[in-house]
Amino acid sequence: MSSENKKRRNPRQRSTKSKSKAHLQSKADKKSGATKNSDKPRKPTVYPMNFAGPMRRLYAFTIDFGLLMMIIYAVAPAASGAMFSQEAAPQDLLFFLGYFIIPTIIWGRTPGKWVAGIVVVDSEGQTPGPAAIPREMIGKLVSYLAFGIGILWLIFDPKRQGWHDKIAGTYVVDNPYSGGPQFMKDFFKIGEKKPNDRSDTKRNSDS
User: What three-state secondary structure class fits 110?
Assistant: First the structure.
């Protein structure tokens, strides 16, 4: 029997070989596609500039304050004076600054802001990064030393900025991508403004 007849009588062998080649080729394409996607840099999240109102910011501060009190009452007895005492003022200051600064630098929000569904951003709608340091250290110190006027300023400011936000060039806006219970976020959405608020445009047209 000639070799040509053998080749003609074995069509299955050809099909299995071609299938295996196609399978290997598809695997190679998938791998190359995965490497291409992994090489692409991930773009930072841009949040919509819907300025958070004072009630939702108070809600976030209340949650942060409650968490801090829980940590203090849990750690202070076991620390035996090394934390949360008159002799441990430097350690306590570092702890409180770290609680507010580090999450704000990395994620733009503390645990309280996460539950309240708000986030600190810069003028481009991205998390502030190192700009959170002057905001939390210098800006809030000035705001509280002025009898809290710098904090209350956000109630009357059109962009809901306190003095600490103005010093660092930051804003506190709605975070539609994460947060706590939706009904709580909706309940505290009082006095929130968007960049192009219709009420503002109506007032300007009337005037």
Answer: coil
Distances (CA, A) of 186 to 56, 108, 116: 9, 21, 10
CB distance 166 to 116 below 8 Å: no
- In sequence order, which residues have a C-beta less than 8 Å from that of residue 171 and are 6 or more positions away? 49, 51, 120, 121, 122, 123, 159, 160, 161, 165
Give the model confidence (pLDDT) of 116-160 as tens digits: 999 999 999 999 999 999 999 999 999 999 999 999 999 999 999
Residue 12, classed as helix, strand or coil, is helix
Once rounded to an integer, what is the mean pLDDT over residues 46-56? 92
Q: Phi/psi of residue 171, each to 5°?
A: -135, 155
| Signed CA dihedral, 181, 186, 192, 193: sign only | positive
Residue bearing tokens 């003022």: 89
The answer to whether the Cα torsion of 132, 137, 142, 143 is positive or negative is: positive
